[in-house]
Specification:
heterodimer, A: about 190 residues, alpha+beta, Alpha-Beta Plaits, 2 domains, four-stranded antiparallel beta sheet, about 45% helix, B: about 475 residues, mainly alpha, 18 helices, about 0% strand
Chain lengths: ~190, ~475
């Protein structure tokens, strides 16, 4: 996996972070990511990220559960072993609603969590590069990937002038797990015509 | 950007002069410190109870259901009472984390983590009872529909008992996923400030490599919201389905359409009571009174008085219907077996009424709602009352039904039946003690999220906004996005 150079700027207040994000983007740099200790609402939009479609996946898993339940139970009770229960109809849809509902929820929840973990490339024991230890405590850590044209010192100065309390240059591997980091990034951001 | 303003009229959710770092420090410190002596004593008692429970279950598995004092008339006794009781308790956590999330109730952040943990442990305890009530527990996997060599002989999908299997296992799975996905960022927080190698490694594994990336947070938010949306009908469905176990039968006292809402309200009632019991201890022992505030206790007591009164209305409705239906079996069950104080089990009905309906009315008083001792005492009373409720429903309906020749009043639990129940307390508290020691008992990231809006030391910043005339307020904020 390739090693890449990153410029890291740490902010200690989200009120300072938002204008800084705007400044850095206006200056033409592409922000790789901002690591925050809690979900900062609006930051994804400020970074120009697309909405996630995770909920759509959840919906698809849900209806998969519904159809699985309906088809399995109706096959079992009408074709495979039509059990006579007090002379009641074999195809007893109202009595199946609880199980159909439960399987819908189960499939949707399990499927979404698995998808979430896949998309975020998370699993027990996975280790990723941490740009700053306090990113999970009280710092908002902005990371900008350097390309051949980037002057890292200029960028550091820009970050500092926009309120970064710490700036730093780090080298990290760009592929974290299955190496989708680079290709994934193109999909995460809205395509903006310049 | 969202409007980051909250009225001064609302009580702060976080007291004290806190920074983000201070929040981390306050909540994570107990994990890093050595447990106190009290913790060891409590843990030891819990494990002892668990051992006794394990031995009771061993007796039951080895010698059969005869170890319990159930008989042909009272075929469901303590076991199913305890099952319904524990499942009911297991409703508050997901209600707090899911329903209150959808209703945008900021106060859930202080209590959701511990309440969800409690939910999961309570459902684990509940599951033991139907499983071991089967008798031949090694055949328990027969409840799962799978192609087998016995026909294949399938389970009965029209049976409420099978619905229960699906409802409770789904509820457990979804609650666990919801809880754990919320824990990931907090485990990462513990990992990143760990100063021992072992702790760094273990919390590193547990945090799944969480970094706090904006994209991950965005997906995490989406995941939480959808899981909350899924859990909301789920939490209502679970106790509804448990009530179907009774309501779809033809036993007088069980065969009523009021059961689903009545059971769900009762479940929330008992669940919140158990949350109070545990949190009042946790906030004191771990010094978290700034995060689990009197305001939180007050709000939960409001839920208790509301749901307790709904349950009370349900009791009265049942009594009314017992008379109004003019069905003599219904009438006998409600007006003799239950409501007549001097009938063999009349004491349990009036115990239930006193604990569930009459005593929670004390919480109409704000002073009482905000009194920690009254709350703690009442939380225990409510849980006793809710245990009585399940006992009343099950035993008073069974002991005298249609055929006087099969009447029986001779049911009192055997020591192994009691031991099994005590054992589930052991399981519950063993899990809870471990949770309290090794997990962040309050959602750290979520507290940070509400800190600058609802923290005591940040609220005065809104003075300027409050002093603003309405027009300029609208002008400043209406176009914010």
């Amino acid at each position: 996996m390739a090693q890449k150079k990153f410029v890291v700027g740490c902010f200690d207040d989200e009120k300072v972070l938002f204008p800084a994000v705007k400044q850095v983007r206006t200056a033409g740099y592409k922000i790789q990511d901002v690591y925050t200790p809690f979900p900062v609402h609006g930051l994804d939009h400020a970074l120009g990220m697309r909405e996630t479609s995770l909920h759509t996946a959840g919906f698809i898993y849900g209806i998969t559960g519904t159809t699985t339940a309906i088809s399995a139970i109706s096959w079992i009770f009408t074709k495979d072993w039509p059990l006579n229960i007090g002379g009641k109809p074999h195809f007893a849809l109202p009595a199946w609603i609880p199980i159909i509902f439960e399987l819908t929820v189960l499939f949707a929840a399990v499927g979404m969590v698995m998808t979430f973990m896949w998309l975020c490339q998370m699993a027990p024991g996975v280790k990723k590069h941490h740009f700053h230890k306090r990113a999970t405590d009280d710092l908002f850590v902005m990371v900008i990937e350097c390309n051949e044209k980037t002057n890292a010192e200029d960028l550091k100065a820009l970050l500092a002038s926009n309120g970064a309390v710490e700036t730093d240059i780090q080298v990290a591997e760009d592929g974290w797990w299955f190496g989708t980091y680079d290709t994934e990034n193109d999909n995460l951001y809205k395509q903006v015509a310049h | 950007m969202h409007l980051k303003y909250e009225s001064q009229l609302r009580e702060p959710l976080v007291y004290g002069n806190k920074t983000y770092a201070q929040v981390t420090e306050d909540i994570v410190r107990p994990i890093e410190a050595k447990p106190s002596r009290l913790w060891y004593i409590g843990f030891f008692i819990a494990v002892t109870l668990l051992m006794f429970g394990a031995y009771s279950v061993y007796r039951e598995v080895t010698y059969g259901i005869g170890q319990w004092n159930l008989n042909k008339t009272i075929g469901w006794g303590w076991d199913i009472t305890n099952f319904v009781w524990w499942v009911g308790i297991g409703h508050a956590g997901t209600l707090i984390s899911a329903v209150l999330l959808l209703f945008r109730q900021g106060w859930r952040t202080g209590v959701n983590r511990a309440a969800e943990a409690m939910t999961i442990f309570a459902v684990m305890c509940a599951g033991q009872f139907p499983i071991f009530h089967m008798g031949r527990v090694w055949m328990a996997f027969f409840v799962m529909p799978y192609p087998n060599s016995r026909g294949p002989l399938w389970v009965n999908f029209n049976s409420p008992l099978l619905w229960d299997v699906f409802a409770i296992s789904t509820y457990f799975t979804v609650s666990l996923l919801f809880w754990y996905s919320g824990l990931l960022p907090d485990f990462a927080t513990v990992r990143d400030r760990a100063f021992t190698k072992l702790r760094k490694k273990l919390y590193g594994i547990a945090s799944f490599g969480w970094t706090g990336s904006t994209k991950h947070w965005q997906r995490h938010e989406s995941l939480s919201l959808v899981l909350a949306g899924l859990s909301t009908p789920l939490v209502l469905s679970v106790h509804t389905i448990v009530s179907f176990d009774f309501a779809t039968s033809v036993i007088p006292g069980w065969h009523t359409t009021i059961f689903p809402p009545y059971f769900v309200a009762g479940a929330i009632f008992s669940g919140f009571a158990m949350v109070q019991t545990l949190l009042l201890i946790v906030r004191k022992v771990f010094g978290l009174t700034d995060y689990i505030t009197i305001g939180h206790i007050d709000l939960m007591n409001k839920v208790i008085v509301l749901t307790g009164s709904i349950v009370g209305i349900a009791y009265l409705t049942e009594l009314f219907m017992g008379w109004y239906s003019q069905n003599k079996y219904e009438g006998y069950t409600f007006w003799y077996s239950r409501a007549y104080l001097f009938s063999p089990y009349g004491w349990s009905y009036w115990g239930m009424m006193a604990c569930n309906v009459i005593s929670p009315q004390i919480f109409w008083s704000k002073k009482m709602r905000r009194n920690v001792f009254v709350t703690f005492f009442m939380s225990i009373i409510v849980n006793i009352g809710m245990w009585f409720e399940r006992f009343v429903i099950i035993v008073t309906s069974l002991y005298r039904d249609y055929l006087p020749s099969s009447w029986s009043v001779y049911y009192s639990p055997s020591i192994w039946e009691i031991g099994f129940y005590a054992g589930t307390f052991g399981l519950f508290f063993t899990c809870f003690f471990l949770f309290a020691k090794y997990f962040p008992v309050i959602a750290v990231a979520e507290i940070k999220y509400v800190l600058k809006r609802s923290g005591e030391s940040y609220k005065p910043e809104f003075d300027a906004i409050e002093a603003q005339p309405l027009d300029s307020f609208v002008h400043d904020h209406a176009h914010a996005h």
